[in-house]
Amino acid sequence: MDFATIRRVWLPMLAGLIAVFAIFRSRLGPHGAARWIGLGLTLVGLAGVIASRYTLGRSFSIKAKATALVTNGIYSRIRNPIYVSGVIFLCGIAIMIWKLYILAFLVIIIPMQIVRARREAAVLEARFGDDYRAYRQRTWF
Fold first, then answer.
1. Is the per-residue pLDDT at 8 higher than 80?
2. Which SS3 state, helix, strand or coil, does residue 79 take?
3. pTM of the entire structure?
4. Distance set, CA 119 to CA 18, 75, 115 (Å)
5. Distances in Å between the alpha carbon of 99 and those of 86, 105, 129?
Protein backbone atom coordinates (compact mmCIF):
# COMPACT_ATOMS: atom_id res chain seq x y z
CA MET A 1 0.00 0.00 0.00
CA ASP A 2 1.47 3.32 -1.05
CA PHE A 3 1.34 6.62 0.81
CA ALA A 4 -1.17 8.06 -1.68
CA THR A 5 -3.66 5.31 -0.76
CA ILE A 6 -3.07 5.88 2.93
CA ARG A 7 -3.60 9.64 2.49
CA ARG A 8 -6.59 9.23 0.16
CA VAL A 9 -8.46 6.46 1.99
CA TRP A 10 -7.21 5.44 5.40
CA LEU A 11 -6.44 8.82 6.97
CA PRO A 12 -9.92 10.21 6.11
CA MET A 13 -11.48 7.02 7.48
CA LEU A 14 -9.55 7.35 10.73
CA ALA A 15 -10.42 11.05 11.02
CA GLY A 16 -14.07 10.28 10.27
CA LEU A 17 -14.23 7.53 12.88
CA ILE A 18 -12.63 9.73 15.52
CA ALA A 19 -15.09 12.55 14.75
CA VAL A 20 -18.11 10.23 14.77
CA PHE A 21 -17.19 8.68 18.10
CA ALA A 22 -16.41 12.11 19.59
CA ILE A 23 -19.88 13.27 18.56
CA PHE A 24 -21.42 10.03 19.85
CA ARG A 25 -19.77 10.40 23.25
CA SER A 26 -20.57 14.12 23.52
CA ARG A 27 -23.50 15.53 25.44
CA LEU A 28 -25.24 16.60 22.25
CA GLY A 29 -28.73 15.17 21.91
CA PRO A 30 -30.48 12.42 23.84
CA HIS A 31 -28.72 9.24 24.87
CA GLY A 32 -31.29 6.62 23.94
CA ALA A 33 -32.16 4.34 21.04
CA ALA A 34 -32.16 7.20 18.51
CA ARG A 35 -28.52 7.87 19.30
CA TRP A 36 -27.61 4.25 18.55
CA ILE A 37 -29.66 4.24 15.34
CA GLY A 38 -27.96 7.47 14.31
CA LEU A 39 -24.55 5.97 15.06
CA GLY A 40 -25.39 2.95 12.91
CA LEU A 41 -26.49 5.10 9.98
CA THR A 42 -23.46 7.36 10.36
CA LEU A 43 -21.08 4.39 10.28
CA VAL A 44 -22.84 2.89 7.25
CA GLY A 45 -22.58 6.24 5.45
CA LEU A 46 -18.92 6.68 6.38
CA ALA A 47 -18.13 3.12 5.28
CA GLY A 48 -19.86 3.77 1.96
CA VAL A 49 -17.86 6.93 1.33
CA ILE A 50 -14.57 5.22 2.22
CA ALA A 51 -15.35 2.11 0.13
CA SER A 52 -16.28 4.36 -2.78
CA ARG A 53 -13.08 6.39 -2.54
CA TYR A 54 -11.01 3.22 -2.27
CA THR A 55 -12.70 1.69 -5.31
CA LEU A 56 -12.31 4.86 -7.36
CA GLY A 57 -8.62 5.09 -6.57
CA ARG A 58 -6.93 7.66 -8.78
CA SER A 59 -10.12 8.12 -10.81
CA PHE A 60 -11.56 10.32 -8.05
CA SER A 61 -11.83 14.01 -8.85
CA ILE A 62 -13.80 16.96 -7.61
CA LYS A 63 -14.76 18.08 -11.12
CA ALA A 64 -16.33 15.64 -13.57
CA LYS A 65 -13.69 14.03 -15.74
CA ALA A 66 -13.53 10.65 -17.42
CA THR A 67 -10.24 8.93 -16.64
CA ALA A 68 -11.72 5.42 -16.28
CA LEU A 69 -15.13 3.79 -16.11
CA VAL A 70 -15.17 2.22 -12.65
CA THR A 71 -17.80 -0.55 -12.49
CA ASN A 72 -16.49 -2.83 -9.75
CA GLY A 73 -17.06 -2.95 -6.01
CA ILE A 74 -19.80 -0.66 -4.73
CA TYR A 75 -19.92 0.90 -8.21
CA SER A 76 -21.32 -2.36 -9.58
CA ARG A 77 -24.65 -1.50 -7.89
CA ILE A 78 -24.70 2.29 -7.43
CA ARG A 79 -23.35 4.84 -9.93
CA ASN A 80 -22.87 7.57 -7.32
CA PRO A 81 -22.23 5.83 -4.00
CA ILE A 82 -20.35 8.78 -2.50
CA TYR A 83 -23.45 10.95 -2.85
CA VAL A 84 -25.79 8.27 -1.49
CA SER A 85 -23.44 7.45 1.39
CA GLY A 86 -23.04 11.13 2.23
CA VAL A 87 -26.80 11.52 2.61
CA ILE A 88 -26.94 8.43 4.86
CA PHE A 89 -24.07 9.87 6.91
CA LEU A 90 -25.83 13.23 7.38
CA CYS A 91 -29.11 11.51 8.33
CA GLY A 92 -27.21 9.49 10.93
CA ILE A 93 -25.55 12.58 12.41
CA ALA A 94 -28.92 14.40 12.56
CA ILE A 95 -30.56 11.49 14.36
CA MET A 96 -27.58 10.82 16.64
CA ILE A 97 -27.45 14.37 18.01
CA TRP A 98 -31.19 14.92 17.51
CA LYS A 99 -30.79 18.09 15.50
CA LEU A 100 -33.43 17.37 12.91
CA TYR A 101 -32.94 20.74 11.21
CA ILE A 102 -29.83 19.11 9.70
CA LEU A 103 -32.27 16.99 7.68
CA ALA A 104 -33.64 20.21 6.19
CA PHE A 105 -30.13 20.81 4.86
CA LEU A 106 -30.73 17.74 2.68
CA VAL A 107 -33.38 19.74 0.79
CA ILE A 108 -30.45 21.74 -0.55
CA ILE A 109 -27.85 18.97 -0.81
CA ILE A 110 -29.89 16.31 -2.62
CA PRO A 111 -30.85 18.47 -5.63
CA MET A 112 -27.23 19.65 -5.85
CA GLN A 113 -26.03 16.04 -5.88
CA ILE A 114 -28.55 15.13 -8.58
CA VAL A 115 -27.33 17.99 -10.79
CA ARG A 116 -23.73 16.99 -10.18
CA ALA A 117 -24.49 13.34 -10.97
CA ARG A 118 -26.13 14.36 -14.25
CA ARG A 119 -23.07 16.41 -15.22
CA GLU A 120 -20.80 13.48 -14.43
CA ALA A 121 -23.06 11.15 -16.42
CA ALA A 122 -22.83 13.42 -19.45
CA VAL A 123 -19.03 13.47 -19.26
CA LEU A 124 -18.84 9.69 -18.85
CA GLU A 125 -21.33 9.05 -21.64
CA ALA A 126 -19.40 11.33 -24.01
CA ARG A 127 -16.15 9.48 -23.22
CA PHE A 128 -17.32 5.84 -22.86
CA GLY A 129 -20.50 5.81 -24.99
CA ASP A 130 -22.24 2.42 -25.14
CA ASP A 131 -20.17 0.99 -22.28
CA TYR A 132 -21.43 3.74 -19.97
CA ARG A 133 -25.03 3.41 -21.21
CA ALA A 134 -24.95 -0.34 -20.51
CA TYR A 135 -23.48 0.32 -17.06
CA ARG A 136 -26.17 2.91 -16.38
CA GLN A 137 -28.91 0.39 -17.26
CA ARG A 138 -27.75 -2.10 -14.63
CA THR A 139 -27.11 0.31 -11.74
CA TRP A 140 -29.11 2.67 -9.52
CA PHE A 141 -28.55 6.47 -9.25
1. no
2. coil
3. 0.86
4. 33, 17, 6
5. 17, 11, 44
